[in-house]
Amino acid sequence: KLLEPVSIFSKKFDEVVAALTSPEAKASEIEHAIRHEIHVRLEENPVFYESLKARLEKIIEERKQERISAAEELRYLNTLVEEMRNIGKTAQDLGFSETEYALYKILAADSSSSGESERFKGYVIKEPSAHYGVLPADASILTREKELQKDLTHTILETLEKLAVIDWTQKNDVQREMRRQTKYILRTKGYESDEIERLTIKIMDLARVRLAK
Question: Which residues belong to any copy of the Type I restriction enzyme HindI endonuclease subunit-like C-terminal domain (predicted)?
Answer without folding.
Answer: 6-114, 130-207
